[in-house]
Description:
This protein is an alpha+beta fold and 315 residues long. The protein is built from 8 helices and 15 strands.
Amino acid sequence: MKDPYQVLGVPRTASADDIRLAFRKLAKKHHPDLNPGDKAAEAKFKEIAQANELLSDAEKRRRFDAGEIDASGQEMPPRGFYRDQAGGMGGAKYRRSGGQEEFVDMGGVFSEMFGQRRGFDYSGGGGEGFEGFDMSGLPVTYTLTVPFLVAARGGKQRVNLPNGKTLDIDIPEGATDGQTLRLKGQGMPGSKGRPAGDAYVEIRVQPHAFFEARDNDIHIELPVTLSEAVLGGKVRVPTVGGPVMLNVPAGSNSGASLRLKGRGLLDRKSGQHGDQYVKLKVVLPDTPDDKLKEFLQSWEAGRAYDPRKAMEQFT
C-alpha cells in the first residue's frame, strides 16, 4: 500500500482541514461518477478514499504514524513476536516475508494453543486430533468499504471471505460509517459438529464526489449559470434518491442555501429522512461571449455597488 500522505499529496504535519480539502479536490477529479468507464480513475479514487479514511480518523492516523498499523489499517506485528526460524511446538514453521513476520503453518497455532496443552494434536500427527477438542467456532471481524450511495439507499455488496467463500451482504438503507453488521454462522467452524462462530462486518462508507453527509442531512454545492441566478428558474439537482427539480429564486447569489425537505439519509431509529441542503455557486462560462462583455461594460448599476464594503470594518 502507498503512503496515505503521498496519495493525498499532503505533508505529515497537515491539519485535519488540509486533509479534508486535499481529499475533496482529488475526489472531484477521479470519482467514478465523473469518469464513467475509466478504470484508472476508479482505481485512483479507491486509493485516495482509503488514504482519507485512515488520515481523517485521528486515532488511526496516530497509530499509523506510530507504526502500529499499516497503510491499509491492518495491525503491524510487534518486532520479534514471531521467531525467525523453525522451532515452534509440533514443528510449526515461521518465516519472514516482505520485511514482516508471517505465520506459515496455522495448524501449529491451534496445536500450541489447544492441542498440545490438553493432549490433542491438531495436525493429526499422532494425537487424538483437534476434533477431540469440543468447542464452538470463533467469531471473526472484517472491515467492508461500501460506496456512499449503496449505504444511503441500501443494497447488496459482494465480499470475498478469506476462506474463499463469496457472500452477498444486505446493506441496510441509511447505513453509517462504523456500523457493524452481524453475519450469523459465517465465522470460524466449530469442532465435533458444534456451530460456527459469527462474522462481524464493520462498514466504512466511501466518501462521495459531491454529496456530504452531516448526521442525517446531505449537503451539496450546486453550480448554477449566471442567467439561472439572476432570472431564477427550475434546475435539476442530484439527490441520494435520484434527481429532482429545484426552484432557484431570481436574484440568488453564490452561497445561498436552499432546502429539499426529506431528501437526506434515513434515520433508522426514527424512521424519518433528513433534509438536503443545496448551496448555490454561480459559475461563469469558461469564455464569456462578446455580448455579455459589452453589457457589463455599459452596466452602470454594476459599478454602483461594492460587494466588499462590509469587509472594511475588519481592516
